[in-house]
Amino acid sequence: MKKFAVIVAGGTGTRMNTTTPKQFLLLKGKPVLYYTIHSFLQAYDDLQIILVLPEEHVAAGQEIIDAFFDYSRIQITIGGRTRFHSVQNGLQLVNEEGIVFVHDAVRCLISTELIKRCYDTAIETGSAIPVIESKDSVRITTEEGNEALERTNIKLVQTPQTFHSKIILPAYQIDYKDKFTDEATVVEAFGLKVQLVDGEENNFKITRPVDLVLAEHLLNAN
Fold first, then answer.
1. What is residue 17's predicted lDDT score, i.e. its pLDDT?
2. Which ranges constitute the DSSP H helices of the chain?
3. In sequence order, what are the residues at sequence separation of 6 or more whose Cβ sits closer than 8 angstroms to the Cβ of residue 166?
4. Domain boundaries, the chain
5. pLDDT digits (tens, 9 = 90+) for 27-51
6. Phi and psi for 82 in degrees, rounded to 5?
7. Which residues pair with 184 in a beta bridge?
8. Is the whole-model pTM more than 0.90?
9. Whole-angstrom Cα distance, residue 40 to residue 34?
C-alpha cells in the first residue's frame, strides 16, 4: 500500500537559545532534519515525504533536499498557524489511498523498526500511536488541589502517529479546536478510537541544547 510521511518542521530555536530553527541545527555536521528524512526514506522504497515548513524556511529545506536526497520523493508545502493547520496543509498532498505517518521533524533518532511497527499496526487496525511508559510519578491538579495518578496507566505520546488515509483525511475536515494537541486527538474527536504501539526511548524531540549532545552520543554509539 502507498505510504506518505507528513513531516512537520515548524519549530523555532527559542529554547535552544538560537535564532536557527531546531530542525536546521547541525548534528554531527548535518541538519537535524536530514536524519529524520533519511530514516523514513530508508524504511520503504515507495514512501513519499511531504515536508511542512514555515514559508520563510522553505529555501533552507530545499537546500537540504538538494544536497542529500532524491527530490522526486519529497514535496514541500507551507505550514499553518497551528500544528493542526500545518498537518492539514500537508494532508492535501496525499493524492491516493495509503498509510499516512505524521512525524515531528525534530524527533530525528526515529528507527526504521518503529516506522515499520507503526505501519504494520495501522494496516491491521487503521491507526498506530507510539507511546512509552512514564518513568516519573505523576499528579493531576484539580479544583480541590492535586492527586496522584497510577503511573502504570500513564503513557507518553510520540510520533509518527500513523493512520489509514480513509481515517485521517476525513478527520482533518472537522473544525479546529484548542484541545487538538496531536493527530490522535483529532481522530478521536472525529469519533474513532486509536491503537497504541510501543514507542522508543531514543525517539525524543530535540528541544534543548542537552538534547543535541545526547543525540550526538547516541549516533556515535551506533
1. 61
2. 32-43, 58-68, 83-91, 112-125, 165-171, 183-189, 209-221
3. 97, 126
4. 2-130+157-221
5. 999 999 999 999 999 999 999 999 9
6. -135, 170
7. none
8. yes
9. 10
pLDDT digits (tens, 9 = 90+) for 7-34: 999 755 555 666 788 999 999 999 999 9
Count of C-beta atoms within a 10 Å radius of residue 25:
19
Cell of 69: 536526497
Q: Is 84 left (phi over 0), alpha (psi -120 to 50) or beta?
A: alpha
Nearest to 202 by CA among 112, 137, 128: 112
Contact 57, 21 (CB under 8 A): yes
Among 98, 114, 117, 109, residue whose Cα is nearest residue 46: 98
The CATH number given to 2-130+157-221 is: 3.90.550.10
Q: What is the mean pLDDT of residues 59-64?
A: 96
Q: Coil, helix or strand for 144?
A: coil
Give the burial class of 200: count Cβ atoms within 10 A of its Cβ; 0-12 exposed, 13-18 middle, 19 or more buried. Answer: middle
Report the C-alpha gap between 24 and 32 in whole angstroms. 6
Maximum separation of any 2 CA atoms in the chain, in Å: 57
Q: Long-range pairs for 186-189 at CB < 8 Å and ≥24 separation? A: 186/84, 187/127, 187/163
